[in-house]
Recover the amino acids of this structure.
């Protein structure tokens, strides 16, 4: 593994980015779902920086109880402070904590990388919110001017938490969807906002992410068994529903629904569909006019033909180089190799490496700078 | 590991699903042929347009049972070539070429003068990773020789006439006769070290060499197509080799992405590479001189370097951009060269002056293909934003976006044989017909009407407001674009949208190219499967005749819509 590290260093040569570390993560038996997502999050630079900031702030407090947030911060800081530029790290404490926290991840069964990402982000938010409340009850540390909770020190105080707390995790990943429902009888439009950390998209064979996003926002008619309760009509009515992105997130996480429950089979099936994803993307189904551009920086790839077994790897773009992370191994790859993870145009194919979670970062936006 | 997966995934699907039907087909019954293949794939053998039905006439692919070996993933592309008559003396390539009359060039230009103007169409999605497995070449070529015995017979009877289609699959280049219903190619050429990626045919070739082949390794060959057809072997004969083993290109990613003969330039050609450089060659030159070029000073700037020695071939290097050039196309008159690339930019150059004229960015993502209208007024581009973009040379701006593909747009072309059914020279009927194919496996046809596009785009009479824009904030239409500048991506609301006239799922695999001929539309998928769709004929009884020759060249030259459109186009917006 040391040799593999030096190979990567050789491949990058004098282009090795200053201060950057490329470390593989040890697999503790089916923990590739965790490793692949951790690599994607580590190379989500604003997230990493803010986590390390939080860690630095938190250290001064000292005796914070161990939780997933501290374990993650610990791991990231461990990677970033390595003397060597490449190598392997064992995310032991983090994985132990994860298994302690959630029985779902306790077994050695194959786990879903998207479920893990979702659990992790929500857990981080919970921890930050709890910390903020503790701080709130302690008036001496309050700093009412700062609305961003970056560590317990500068959480929103002043009691009235009318609006939900916006943590730095929110600032990075949270977007807002508007669910518009128009009653076909009285024409009243009911709009309801919901927040999201990622978009889960239905996929079709030989389509693009652009097309999947378009379908996500397309108008759907609610009828028959699935009518809408209109408050104005006070009854179930046929209605038209559509989802629009009201506030696009800074980090856009797109989850491809490759695991589909097939009723006839009574089990999940993996869809190996070819879904192309561009390296740059714009959201045209937003309420705002700004066509902000996103750039792909990480892909979590599911390897395997079925949903209950297989492997996860990740592709990461760091300082304009693409890297391939497979547990302990890190390799440099060509940008054009990303296309080999689109999926298969035919159902039965020996190519089983399929892009599963895509991470895009908004370019030219500074919303995450706190 | 990644690479091997890419390789393994190559082509398995199509070949396994296509070969059982292939063997059971009788080549003479095209319609039955099409249906039996299509039913299992749920694909129709016709599609309707306002002018009538386009019907599946025949299909072409590589020989069944032979899976061309692939040095990494490569995408099939198609090139049309027209050869008119048997050479007076069989033999050397140069004499056969010299004997072709000007009539050949005329007819061939007519067949090929669509879209790219040279019959070549470049697609970007050549994912050549440059991997090289140890080839088991010996065993394969021996089996080939056995199974292709009938083809060598064909070759000896070859009369030198006809319309041919050249396409690449894996490590092979195939030539099919478009005038027969035969599904199998009449010629296959194997490349032992690298995949052929792109090709171009020169209908005006003065001496024998009329076919260019660009390889994944960066190597380029020029050959005489006629000479290849006369030969029974599996290797190129009488080829001239350029950029041998990357002697010119030496950067990491030097694979050829697109080749094109320069129209009316007597044997000059250009080769675009994945490293953002384009080289200009002259086929008459040996290239024994110094072939090195100075280091590009500013990677971000367009620059042209000429060879130090007059003996050198290539004679010039154009540094166009930092990332891959995915497609190139010359305007029909050869005055302009358009390039599209990974960086999402369309660039238009004055070829003689070696100057950037104009260009602009895609909505987002890479651009994959481009094509000119016959009159040189419009350029189509397609790319990773799923849009077909219409670029106006006069405005130096995007004037329309075609929305309708559900995936990346991999091939675009104007239909220069199409004329509006109501066309009588009046202004209202100025229209262009164009087509696009995408990775969504669909062929889309579009009508571009000048009334819809040009009028709203122009300013309304003083006091009026633009009819399409939501407000005056838009700078897309207000700004004047100076010559030599590249436009940023327009915003969604600034560009008028087009809807397709027809959307038809033509293949089961992502598509890679399309060509319009006088009689038909050719669609090709990435795996090397080509379908020929015959245009609707004036009377339905005629179209039921299965003996319609596809590459028939004995008809009059059709009216070019752009020509009749030229005067009325102006009057629309005056």
């Amino acid at each position: 593994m040391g040799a593999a590290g030096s190979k990567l260093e050789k491949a990058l040569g004098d282009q090795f980015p200053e201060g950057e570390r490329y470390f593989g993560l040890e697999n503790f038996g089916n923990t590739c779902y965790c490793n692949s997502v951790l690599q994607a999050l580590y190379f989500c630079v604003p997230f990493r920086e803010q986590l390390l900031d939080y860690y630095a702030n938190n250290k001064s407090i000292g005796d914070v109880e161990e939780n997933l947030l501290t374990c993650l911060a610990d791991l990231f800081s461990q990677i970033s402070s390595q003397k060597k530029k490449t190598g392997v790290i064992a995310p032991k404490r983090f994985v132990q904590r994860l298994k302690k926290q959630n029985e779902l991840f306790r077994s050695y069964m194959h786990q879903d990388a998207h479920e893990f990402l979702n659990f992790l982000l929500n857990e981080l938010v919970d921890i930050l919110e709890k910390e903020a409340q503790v701080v709130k009850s302690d008036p001496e540390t309050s700093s009412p001017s700062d609305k961003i909770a970056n560590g317990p020190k500068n959480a929103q105080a002043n009691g009235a938490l009318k609006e939900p707390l916006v943590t730095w995790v929110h600032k990075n990943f949270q977007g807002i969807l508007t669910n518009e429902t128009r009653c076909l009888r009285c024409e009243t439009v009911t709009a309801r906002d919901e927040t999201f950390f990622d978009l889960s998209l239905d996929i079709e064979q030989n389509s693009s992410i652009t097309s999947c996003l378009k379908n996500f926002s397309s108008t759907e008619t609610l009828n028959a068994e699935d009518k809408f309760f209109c408050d104005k009509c006070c009854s179930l009515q046929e209605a038209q529903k559509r989802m629009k992105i009201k506030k696009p997130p800074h980090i856009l996480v797109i989850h491809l629904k490759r695991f589909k429950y097939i009723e006839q089979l009574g089990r999940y099936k993996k869809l190996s569909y070819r879904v192309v994803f561009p390296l740059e993307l714009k959201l045209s189904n937003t309420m705002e006019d700004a066509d902000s551009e996103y750039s792909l920086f990480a892909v979590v790839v599911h390897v395997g033909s079925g949903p209950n077994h297989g492997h996860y790897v990740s592709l990461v773009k760091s300082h304009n180089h693409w890297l391939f992370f497979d547990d302990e191994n890190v390799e440099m790859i060509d940008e054009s190799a990303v296309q080999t993870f689109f999926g298969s145009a035919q159902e039965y194919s020996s190519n089983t490496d399929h892009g599963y979670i895509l991470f895009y970062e908004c370019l030219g936006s500074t919303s995450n700078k706190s | 590991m990644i690479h091997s997966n890419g390789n393994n995934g190559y082509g398995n699907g199509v070949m396994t699903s296509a070969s059982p039907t292939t063997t059971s087909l009788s080549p003479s019954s095209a319609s039955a042929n099409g249906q039996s293949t299509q039913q299992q794939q749920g694909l129709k053998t016709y599609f309707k347009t306002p002018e009538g039905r386009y019907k599946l006439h025949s299909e072409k692919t590589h020989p069944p049972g032979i899976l061309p070996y692939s040095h990494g993933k490569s995408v099939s592309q198609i090139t049309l070539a027209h050869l008119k008559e048997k050479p007076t003396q069989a033999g050397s390539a140069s004499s056969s070429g010299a004997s072709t009359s000007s009539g050949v060039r005329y007819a061939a230009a007519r067949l090929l003068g669509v879209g790219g103007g040279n019959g070549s169409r470049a697609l970007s999605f050549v994912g050549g990773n440059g991997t090289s497995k140890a080839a088991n070449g010996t065993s394969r070529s021996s089996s080939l020789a056995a199974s292709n015995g009938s083809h060598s017979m064909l070759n000896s009877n070859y009369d030198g006439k006809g319309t041919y289609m050249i396409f690449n699959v894996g490590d092979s280049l195939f030539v099919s006769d478009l005038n027969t219903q035969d599904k199998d190619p009449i010629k296959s050429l194997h490349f032992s070290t690298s995949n052929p990626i792109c090709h171009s045919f020169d209908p005006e070739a003065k001496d024998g060499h009329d076919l260019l082949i660009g390889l994944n390794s960066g190597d380029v060959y020029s050959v005489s197509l006629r000479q290849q057809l006369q030969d029974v072997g599996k290797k190129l004969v009488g080829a001239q080799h350029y950029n041998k083993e990357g002697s010119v290109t030496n950067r990491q990613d030097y694979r050829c992405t697109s080749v094109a003969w320069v129209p009316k330039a007597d044997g000059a050609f250009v080769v675009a590479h994945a490293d953002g450089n384009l080289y200009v060659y002259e086929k008459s030159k040996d290239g024994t001189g110094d072939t090195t070029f100075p280091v590009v000073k500013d990677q971000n700037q367009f620059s042209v370097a000429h060879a130090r020695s007059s003996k050198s071939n290539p004679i010039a290097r154009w540094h166009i951009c930092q990332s891959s050039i995915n497609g190139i196309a010359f305007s029909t008159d050869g005055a302009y060269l358009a390039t599209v690339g990974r960086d999402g930019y369309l660039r238009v150059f004055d070829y003689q002056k070696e100057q950037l004229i104009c260009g602009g960015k895609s909505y987002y993502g890479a651009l994959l293909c481009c094509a000119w209208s016959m009159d040189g007024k419009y350029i189509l581009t397609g790319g990773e934003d799923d849009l077909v973009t219409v670029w106006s040379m006069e405005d130096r701006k995007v004037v329309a976006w075609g929305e309708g593909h559900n995936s990346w747009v991999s091939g675009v072309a104007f239909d220069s044989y199409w004329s509006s059914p109501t066309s009588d020279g009046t202004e209202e009927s100025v229209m262009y017909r164009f087509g696009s194919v995408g990775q969504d496996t669909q062929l889309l046809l579009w009508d571009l009407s000048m009334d819809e596009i040009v009028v709203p785009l122009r300013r309304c009479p003083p006091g009026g407001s633009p009819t399409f824009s939501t407000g005056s904030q838009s700078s897309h239409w207000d700004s004047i674009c100076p010559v030599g500048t590249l436009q940023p991506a327009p915003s969604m609301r600034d560009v008028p949208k087009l809807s397709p006239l027809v959307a038809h799922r033509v293949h089961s695999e992502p598509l890679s190219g399309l060509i319009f001929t006088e009689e038909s539309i050719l669609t090709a998928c990435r795996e090397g499967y080509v379908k020929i769709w015959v245009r609707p004929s004036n009377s339905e009884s005629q179209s039921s005749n299965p003996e319609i020759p596809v590459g028939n060249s004995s008809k009059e030259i059709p009216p070019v819509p752009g020509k009749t459109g030229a005067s009325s186009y102006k009057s629309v917006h005056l």
Chain B has one domain: 2-466+476-573. The mean pLDDT of chain B is 74. The first helix of chain B runs from residue 2 to 8.
